[in-house]
Aggrecan core protein (Elysia marginata), 163 residues
Amino acid sequence: MASPQNKFTVAAFLLALIAVDATRAFSCDHSWLKSAESKSCVRYFPEAKPWHQARSFCQANGGDLVKIVSSRMNNRLYRFLTNRYQQIYIGLHDVTTEGKFKWLDETQEASYTDWGENSPDNYQSGEDCTVMGYYTRKSWNDVPCWHGNAFFLREVSWYEAFK
């Protein structure tokens, strides 16, 4: 039978291993952008899809549409915009409640946003999904979810999977 002291030593060792693993630097495949801010890897997909299809694609590949958590992360993602008319879906929406934009993994309104001038505006009462784009002066705009746009897939991180 193990002594109380041995049990404590084993438990302390296991906790130390878990702590080291949780803070360990993560890496992304070369075709993915590492986002230290969200502790995840992000990949750009140029194929135009409606928002719900883009999200289904992301989920089928172990992730979801990107959640942008800071201006630094936002600015890094803008490098994927190649022309002034391009729009890229992100994981922000107000599908559930009009005017209350939330990230896909949250129940509260988004704390970080980068809306363009006069956005969101729900133009013609049908804009529930969000894009980032050049035509909006490198900012976000609400658009109809049925538009076909490129998108960012955010791989669910180890940290998120077990928090």
Q: What stands out?
A: Helices lie at 4-23, 51-60, 71-77, 158-161.
